[in-house]
Amino acid sequence: MITRLTFASRLGLIVVLSLIVGWIASTAIFYMATAREDGESRPLPLPQQIAAIVQLLEQASGSTERSLIIRAVGSAKFSVQLVSALPLLQTPQTRPFELRAQLVEKALDEIGGRPFSLTFDAAAGHNKRPPQFSYMKPTDLELRVRLQTGETLVIRGYHRPTTNVYGMPIGFIAGLVGTLTGLMALIVMHRQTRPLARLAATVDQFDFSGQPTMLAETRSAAPEIRALIAAFNRLQARLAQLLRARMAMLGGISHDVRTFATRLRLRVDHIPDKMDRERAVADIDDMIRLLDDALLASRAGAGELVEELVEFRQVVRDEVDDRSAERAPIHLQSVTSEEDAIVLGDRVALRRVVANLIDNALQYGRAAHVRVDASDRSVRLTIDDEGPGIPAEQREALLEPFVRLETSRNRRTGGAGLGLAVVRSLVEAHGGAINIGDAPTGGARFTVSLPLFHA
User: Fold this and answer.
1) Can you tell me the distance from the alpha carbon of 335 to that of 379, in angstroms, rounded to the nearest whole number?
2) 370 domain residue, yes or no
3) pTM (global) more than 0.70
């Protein structure tokens, strides 16, 4: 799941997780700082303070002195009251109450013990439906202690949220500030990563046949991103210049070599021995074919192929008929009509694809079984041979330039290793794909898929 997130999404997730961890840590530190060492929060006085209050009230000589003691020990978190003839209540049998009651009982035992009860504060409305009290959800408490004088000491503790000067809880203010900070960070981060998205889109739309599209420099972006955009623009300019120079060089070489090959062909005709003359002519034809393949592959890589509507089935049939006229062991099976296999592409390049694959099957596989079928979106050419097949670990490498299964560079045992590389280059230039598999006849199967043209 994390691998599908964009760079901006990952940074945003880091910011959000950091804020969450910060909130949790700050909340934990706050409650740890305001809690007692024994872990008990303080809506009520400490057990030792309760025992001291009991002793002071029991030892007071009059009502005036008792009133002074009650006023002295009271606070905003708890109130102290002395009531006559007030019965004790039943302490709830829950762990938070039991732990608090044990601490109070231990403190009162040190002064001789006193009956007491620890309950919810009935005045807070908990007498009918008590809340689910726990240490994580504290509520108002009421402690009643029966004095030796017969009176009942009532101490009510109140859990009030800690607030700031504006009357809002500190946790709410911290969360609001953290959220606003996180949103601002996300907005700034999105603005900083936007040039990277434009850079990726420009790379995908890079057109070798046209002028390079320069990215506009963003002054508000980080220095690293500005440097990356500038480097990419320089790279585009260099690639365009290099490509133009390469195409010009190949064009010049092709023209000059063809001129020399024509002169050489005329001289070859004067070779008296027929066998030597035929071998020389074949070598010249192979040289011109190799040059044409290299030039065609370069044009495909540069995006300079011609685009026209091509009846792919007819292209395949023409190539098959040429080999059949030479009595080559080739068979064509077509399961689609010509109207179902219209491809937008270069006719010469598509013929070279079909010719290279068929010649490869005839030369190395002893026979070629050709099949053409089409679906709603693509047309597929399948060529099976009857050779020994191609090992799975060598199939991908075989599509690279100048790679042959037969490693000796003898032209009598194979070509230059450029035919399949040219096929892949031309097929990919048309938006298609080529795969190598196993044929039912035991040989190799070459499958080419090309997108159909839809008006």
Assistant:
1) 11
2) yes
3) no
